[in-house]
Design the sequence.
DNA sequence: CTGAAAGCGCTTACAG
DNA sequence: CTGAAAGCGCTTACAG
């Protein structure tokens, strides 16, 4: 392994001088020596040791992306986020460490161990947000969090509007009886906001949606069964995730029901898959690439200037009309 | 920031003793002092500095996952691999750094800078394989490579067999005229092996496939047009990637052709999406989770014992029959 | 069972 | 423009 010292000896200069040219501080080195050193570095294939650099400069250039263990990375939404974020960070000179951590203690230990300069949280760390924030004095970007903690930076989407758009479209298409299927447990605030937007809009049209018609993620076959056996039948279903809609649609079709003739569906996310299915899924779209871009920009900005105040950013969503909603106006 | 030294002072012992209990070498420390130190560590929330550890022990515990810049991480296959690999490495005490690098120089620099203990390459680094190997004396796992370099460890699938299975199934279903669409440029050896298996099997049935019928990845609309305008028409198309098949099918359907009535399709990979489309895609399945598991196991084994010889591992593939192939035997 | 010394490869802060 | 000294937080190798 070749070190600064080796280069210094070959060039007959001090370690300091080599360090300067390695780091591009040419202003403080004569052109000749700089050139000579450059040449030796080139030919020897010297690569600085980042651990040493990190240790002495307190500057790791590492950014941690953290997901929960369960939803993990297999979720296509998270996969897409990862794929979008990593190249951006890399282009800006940062190295990305990806970890799946549940507990705030693990998060803190991970961030401290590597002296990460910033962290991005994919997935909900609601209860731990405060503790994570308290224990880590580096820029932290949360996503899609509705944590009431004020002192965090969060980048999310307008989930409420998503629900509104879905309801409006369904109403416009003549639907009057609705079901809702949320992706996560009862305490997913994202899911709740979407439901609220949906409900408010429907209520404003003097239609209500009963308890019976509010379902939560579980075996798609069970979900489909519940839907077809509703005491009060339903013509349209709003789902908080494309994949959820697709799974239910699949079960319905297996059982000889027709989509959208028997049941109309609206999904959420506009994942690529929603375009490929038949019928093509009408869905609420969020722009993941844009979100990733904003996450990185915001994080980098906060790393450059640690005194920046926290930001709460909400990105827009829009309805993408495709073929899974039937127009039942005659 | 709290360090070993701080703990040592509080506990009235040497740094060395604290280091021992941090690293679990209890055998060399009296129970009492160990306990006392444990308590102080707990209460102070001490986390070892991994850069320092890495620097002095030459033991980074970092594993690099490297993809090419173009196919990058957006490809669903690579996404799935990432999602499967990271948790396994983490469970084994390793930290994962993900980077998108094209040039072997960048790879070398990245690996050296962080003193990675191992690396996994997703995507083809064919021409650079040798140079990467020469410049990095750590366990390296390549995937899906047909590099002729003997001294590398590679984990791939039986691409040839994939082609054979596709051809056999199509022949059994009565098809006699075929097209092939490969995913990558002409020098993707994976694509070529699949084509070879396909061709050999078809030739064995006394059928040939002309130049005209061998297509390469490009705008799906163009591909679809070429297919419907073949001078010698075709009833079945074998594609080296599910997503390719789906895109072409989509274009065909838009133009009022029927799948599988007008054209039958077989894809490759068995990505989740292939189940959701209509018609559900018949495809050659590879078990990505199993592959990821094997990649990690092999890498870890080679890290534990650097003298292990290189391994060339080929995983099996199988045909998954769904609804995109029409049986045209009367 | 415990510790003092040296060193990992770099940077910071200072002196000239 | 150049360099000697000290130090980042840990581990290795040795001594007792």
Sequence:
């Amino acid at each position: 392994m070749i070190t600064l010292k080796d280069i210094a000896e070959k060039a007959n200069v001090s370690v300091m001088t080599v360090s300067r040219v390695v780091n591009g501080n040419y202003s403080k080195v004569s052109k000749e020596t700089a050139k000579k050193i450059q040449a030796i570095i080139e030919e020897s294939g010297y690569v600085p040791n980042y651990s040493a650099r990190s240790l002495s400069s307190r500057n790791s250039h590492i950014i941690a992306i953290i997901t929960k263990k369960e939803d993990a990375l297999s979720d296509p939404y998270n996969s897409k986020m990862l794929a979008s974020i990593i190249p951006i960070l890399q282009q800006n000179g940062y190295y990305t460490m990806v970890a799946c951590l549940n507990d705030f203690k693990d998060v803190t230990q991970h961030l401290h161990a590597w002296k990460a300069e910033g962290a991005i949280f994919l997935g909900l760390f609601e209860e731990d947000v405060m503790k994570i924030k308290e224990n880590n004095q580096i820029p932290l970007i949360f996503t899609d969090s509705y944590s009431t903690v004020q002192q965090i930076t969060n980048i999310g989407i307008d989930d409420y509007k998503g629900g509104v758009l879905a309801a409006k479209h369904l109403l416009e298409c003549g639907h009057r009886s609705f079901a809702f299927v949320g992706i996560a447990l009862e305490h997913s605030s994202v899911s709740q906001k979407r439901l609220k937007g949906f409900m408010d809009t429907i209520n404003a049209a003097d239609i209500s949606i009963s308890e019976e018609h509010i379902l939560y993620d579980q075996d798609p076959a069970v979900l489909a069964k519940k839907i077809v056996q509703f005491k009060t039948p339903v013509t349209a279903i709003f789902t908080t995730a494309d994949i959820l809609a697709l799974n239910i649609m699949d079960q319905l079709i297996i059982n000889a029901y027709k989509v959208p003739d028997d049941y109309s569906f609206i999904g959420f996310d506009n994942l690529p898959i929603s375009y490929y299915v038949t019928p093509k899924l009408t869905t609420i779209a969020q722009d993941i690439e844009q979100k990733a871009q904003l996450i990185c920009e915001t994080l980098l900005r906060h790393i450059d200037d640690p005194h920046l105040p926290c930001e709460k950013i909400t990105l827009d969503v829009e309805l993408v009309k495709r073929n899974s909603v039937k127009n039942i106006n005659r």
About this structure: The mean pLDDT of chain A is 92. The first strand of chain A starts at residue 62 and ends at 67. Residues 13-17, 20, 27-30, 33, 52, 54-58 of chain A lie near DNA strand D (CB under 10 Å from a C1').
